[in-house]
Specification:
The chain is an alpha/beta fold and 358 residues long. The chain has nine helices and twelve strands. The strands form three sheets. Strands 1, 5, 6, 7 and 8 form a five-stranded mixed sheet that branches. Strands 9-10-11-12 form a four-stranded antiparallel sheet, covered by helices on one side. Helix 6 runs parallel beside helix 7. The protein is globular, with a radius of gyration of 20 Å.
Length: 358
C-alpha cells in the first residue's frame, strides 16, 4: 500500500524509511525504472495480478467490463495445479477485491472476517495491523499444499497511517504522516520473512514485491508526471540467482508475464505488459485525460488526439525541457506504439476478449 519509490533508500541518494526492504533488495533482482499503471488501489491490483492497466476514468473492477472473464496469474497457474489465494486484512467487500478474486480464478479470498484475533489487532478503521496479519498469513501458507501462488496486500501504510501503540516513536516520522507507517510496514515485512525462512516452502518460492500506487512526495524529482508513478518492483528468490538489476522500463502489468516466463509455462494469454526478461520494456498510465508512455528513458504525453510533450527523463528528471518539436521521429515512433496499445486495450474491453485459452 502506497510504497512510493521515493520512500525506499535503495533507489535514492537520500535515506528512506525501509531498512529491511533495502537489505532484501541487495539480494534481489530489482527493476530500476518501474511504474504503476494507476493511481488507486482498485486500479493497482488488477494491473499487478491480471496485467490490466487503468486506461479509463472508471476503475476496471467497477466498470461495465469488470465482470468479464480474463487471464490472471491465478487463472493461469490454477491450470497448472497451483493453489491460488488472495489475502487482505480489510473488511469484507473492500474495493471489490473479493468479487475480483472470485472472477479471476482465485481458489480462496481471505479478509478480516477470517482473522482469529480481530479485537486485539484491529487498527480502528481499515482492518488488521500489518505485523499480526502477515504472521497469520505465514501460518496460512504453512498449511497449503504446494505448488501454490498467493498474493497479500497490506494496509497499515494507508491513511490515517495508524500503527500499534507499542510501536509508537520506534520508526522515523519524516515530513509526511505516511513515513512512520511505511517504517512499520517494512518492519512487519521483516518479521514475516524472519518467520517464513523456517517454513518448508520458503527456499522454493519466488517473492515479488511491488506497490499498488504512489503517494505524496517531498522531493521535486517525484513531484511530477514521471515520479508520480514511480514504484518499486523486486523479484527475490532464496535459492535462485536472478541477477541484480533490470535497467529497462517496467510496469505493474509486467508481473503476470514475468511469472509465466520464470516458471517456463507454455501458454497463451492476454496481457498488457511484457516479461521483465524480454528485450522490450515500456509502461503506460492515464490520468485526467492524458496518456503517458514511458520507454527507453523517455516519456511521451498524449491527449487522445495528439502528443503534447516529450521528455528525456534520465537527463531531465524535473521535466523542464519539452523535446516534442526537436525529436519528431522519436515522438512519432512512441506515439504509434501508444496508439496501438490503446486501440488493442479498447477493442478487447469492448468485445470481451480479455482471455485466451487456445
Amino acid at each position: 500500500e502506497s510504497f512510493s519509490r521515493e520512500y525506499i533508500g535503495y533507489y535514492n541518494n537520500f535515506k528512506g524509511y525501509t531498512p529491511f526492504l533495502d537489505s532484501l533488495m541487495r539480494q534481489s533482482l530489482v527493476c530500476q525504472h518501474a511504474y504503476a499503471n494507476g493511481k488507486k488501489s482498485i486500479e493497482g491490483i488488477p494491473a499487478v495480478l491480471s496485467g490490466i492497466p487503468a486506461l479509463a476514468d472508471k476503475p476496471y473492477i467497477l466498470s461495465q467490463y469488470g465482470s468479464q472473464k480474463g487471464n490472471s496469474i491465478a487463472s493461469l497457474l490454477s491450470q497448472q495445479g497451483y493453489d491460488c489465494s488472495f489475502y487482505h486484512g480489510g473488511h469484507p467487500g473492500t474495493m471489490g477485491f473479493d468479487a475480483y478474486a472470485e472472477m479471476t480464478g482465485f481458489d480462496k479470498y481471505v479478509d478480516l472476517s477470517s482473522y482469529p484475533n480481530k479485537e486485539a489487532d484491529y487498527d480502528g478503521k481499515w482492518g488488521i495491523f500489518d505485523e499480526p496479519f502477515l504472521q497469520f498469513y505465514k501460518e496460512e501458507l504453512d498449511g497449503k499444499q504446494t505448488p501454490f501462488f498467493s498474493a497479500v496486500f497490506n494496509l497499515s501504510s494507508h491513511h490515517p497511517y495508524t500503527i500499534p501503540e507499542s510501536y509508537k516513536n520506534r520508526f522515523p516520522k519524516g515530513p509526511l504522516a505516511i513515513h512512520e507507517s511505511i517504517g512499520y510496514s517494512d518492519f512487519a515485512l521483516q518479521q514475516f520473512f524472519k518467520a517464513a525462512q523456517n517454513s518448508t516452502w520458503f527456499q522454493n518460492t519466488l517473492f515479488v514485491i511491488t506497490a499498488d500506487h504512489t503517494f505524496k512526495a517531498t522531493h521535486k524529482t517525484y513531484q511530477n508526471a514521471n515520479g508520480l508513478y514511480a514504484i518499486p518492483l523486486i523479484f527475490y528468490s532464496p535459492s535462485d540467482s536472478l541477477g541484480s538489476s533490470i535497467d529497462k522500463v517496467c510496469q505493474q502489468a509486467d508481473v503476470l508475464p514475468s511469472l509465466i516466463d520464470y516458471l517456463n509455462i507454455d501458454t497463451s494469454l492476454v496481457c498488457f505488459g511484457n516479461s521483465i526478461w524480454s528485450e522490450e520494456g515500456f509502461a503506460v498510465n492515464y490520468l485526467n485525460n492524458i496518456y503517458q508512455y514511458f520507454e527507453a528513458g523517455h516519456l511521451l504525453q498524449f491527449n487522445g488526439e495528439e502528443s503534447i510533450a516529450l521528455y528525456e527523463v534520465k537527463k531531465d528528471s524535473l521535466l523542464e525541457n519539452n523535446l516534442l518539436l526537436e525529436r519528431s521521429e522519436l515522438k512519432q515512433a512512441m506515439e504509434n506504439k501508444l496508439k496501438a496499445y490503446i486501440q488493442n486495450y479498447n477493442h478487447r474491453m469492448i468485445h470481451n476478449k480479455l482471455e485466451r485459452n487456445d
